[in-house]
From TrEMBL:
Keywords, ordered alphabetically: 4Fe-4S, Iron, Iron-sulfur, Metal-binding, S-adenosyl-L-methionine
Domain spans labelled Biotin and thiamin synthesis-associated: 269-374
SMART domains linked to this entry: BATS
Cofactor requirements of the protein: [4Fe-4S] cluster
InterPro entries named among the record's database cross-references: Aldolase_TIM (IPR013785), BATS_dom (IPR010722), FeFe-hyd_mat_HydG (IPR024007), rSAM (IPR007197), rSAM_sf (IPR058240), ThiH/NoCL/HydG-like (IPR034428)
Native organism: Desulfovibrio porci
Keyword Iron-sulfur: yes
Alphabetized SUPFAM superfamilies for the sequence: Radical SAM enzymes (SSF102114)
Name of this protein: [FeFe] hydrogenase H-cluster radical SAM maturase HydG
Sections of the chain in a coiled coil: none
Length: 463
């Protein structure tokens, strides 16, 4: 497929037409759409657009509750936790909203060295993390070898009883052979955020450098799959373009990936644009908290099998509300500050901005307060080599609960025994015992067998 033309799946006219209707769905139409989601079928963009027009407060509550039910059906109570790790903030692009942009002279620049990566990895492991997402700026020459080295360094860091078991990378467009290098290094999901699919908004915010190539970025997930990458994740930076447009566009993108590669998008990350040091950039299409939650809920209803990823950069109450309307993964705990030394950069510039600076124990405790979300550190799928089409068909055929329920409980117990504060451990053990009571016999048996092994000191147990 040529990469210098608009891909056929991104049908701007169809999106505009779907968003052009004005009337809210009536009872029957709303019920039909929600029933389709409950049957775990993907929605059309017309149906998702209808959900955007829901205005009746009772209908809105129904929409949110149904999103939660869909999430429960596919993922159960699990919220998977991952830590972003910013390894470099050098960047060749000028994206007006980003602190890393080439022209921002108020931040100190840094490449993390392998010993620093090792130390950062240890700090994350000491919090209990098992999953890391590598984040860096986008350089004219992508320096894939640097990323490859970071992946291998992190896979070889151990601290006490723990290690990093899955390393995902957040990258832009690469050459096929570069994606292949990452795949050979055993990366988990390759995350390629489009940020906004709205072409005028994209071009206005990305003024120069590699990321200003709107079309190149749209085609990058295809290149990644064709190069043999197992899992690709998509992402939005909400507020950069109209959220309604971006949500429908990312649905079309995910549908295209499912159609062509049988794998779909493993995740859709949904982060809101936030002010950054050296900023001065006005969010072009700001979303209220209510709109943000509705956007998350509609995404869950529209692409039921896709992981929906939020960040604890959002206010605590809001990301927890997000977990109640369809979010299945949280980014958090970037800092055990791996960048202490970055703060000593010469010239008293503002240190590299770090985002998700909650300690994972605080996040877990906050999730446990509602006694319904089960924090998960599970990495069974990558350990078993399940990715892409194999992962999707497993989820579609039997849902994620039968294996993932017991595996998540075991991974959570591993966290509680080795990393949690006493209070969190007490709350967590209580929750596990309640969740066991709610499991069907075979799953309960499997979970109890795994728990027995973890309690006896065995780690990384899964089925
Ligand atoms: S390419 Fe990424 S890191 Fe660089 S300025 Fe743009 S958004 Fe920031």
């Amino acid at each position: 497929m040529p990469t210098d033309t608009l891909p056929p799946w991104l049908d701007h006219q169809a999106i505009d037409k779907a968003l052009g209707r004005e009337s809210a769905p009536d009872n029957a139409e709303l019920r039909d759409i929600l029933d389709k989601s409950l049957a775990l079928e993907s929605l059309s963009i017309q149906e998702a657009a209808a959900l955007m027009r829901v205005s009746d407060p009772e209908h809105l509550v129904l929409l949110m509750n149904t999103a939660d039910q869909v999430k429960q059906k596919v993922y159960g109570d699990r919220i998977v936790l991952s830590a972003p790790l910013h390894i470099s903030n050098y960047c060749g692009s000028e994206c007006l909203y980003c602190a890393n942009r080439r022209g921002n002279t108020t931040v100190a620049r840094k490449y993390m060295t392998p010993p620093e990566m090792r130390e950062a990895g240890r700090k994350l492991i000491r919090q209990g993390h098992k999953r890391v997402i590598l984040v860096s700026g986008q350089l004219p020459n992508a320096e894939v070898e640097y990323l490859e080295e970071a992946v291998s360094v992190l896979y070889t860091v151990f601290d006490g009883m723990g290690e990093i078991r899955r390393v995902n990378v957040n990258v832009g467009p690469l050459k096929p052979e570069e994606y292949a290098i990452l795949q050979a290094a055993d990366v988990g999901t390759v995350l390629i955020y489009q940020d906004t699919y709205h072409e005028a908004s994209y071009r206005a915010a990305h003024v120069s450098g590699p990321k200003s190539d709107y079309l190149g970025r749209l085609h990058a997930p295809d290149t990644a799959f064709q190069a043999g990458v197992g899992d690709v994740g998509l992402g939005l930076l909400l507020g950069l373009g109209p959220w309604q447009y971006d949500l429908l566009a990312v649905m079309l993108h995910a549908a295209h990936l499912t159609r062509v590669y049988d794998a779909g998008s493993r995740t859709v990350s949904m982060h809101r644009l936030r002010p950054v040091p050296g900023g001065g950039f006005e969010v072009p299409y700001p979303l209220s908290d209510g709109e943000y939650l509705r956007c998350v809920a509609i995404a869950r209803l529209a692409v039921p099998y896709t992981g929906i990823v939020l960040t604890t950069k959002e206010p605590a109450g809001l990301w927890r509300d997000g977990c109640n309307v369809g979010c299945s993964q949280l980014l958090t705990g970037s800092v055990a500050n791996p960048y202490e030394s970055w703060n000593e950069a010469p010239g008293e510039k503002i240190p590299f901005p770090i985002g998700e600076d909650c300690h994972v124990d605080e996040v877990v405790r906050f999730l446990l307060e509602e006694a319904r979300h089960l924090p998960s550190f599970c990495t069974a799928c990558p350990r078993l080599g399940r990715s892409g089409p194999e992962f999707l068909s497993m989820v579609q055929e039997c849902g994620m609960k039968s294996q993932c329920g017991p595996n998540s409980i075991a991974s959570f117990m591993e966290f509680l025994l080795n990393y949690a504060t006493p209070y969190t451990r007490q709350m967590g053990e209580k929750l596990i015992s309640e969740k066991l009571d709610g499991l069907p016999g075979p799953e309960r048996g499997a979970a109890e067998r795994l728990l027995q092994k973890v309690r006896s000191g065995r780690m990384d147990e899964f089925i």
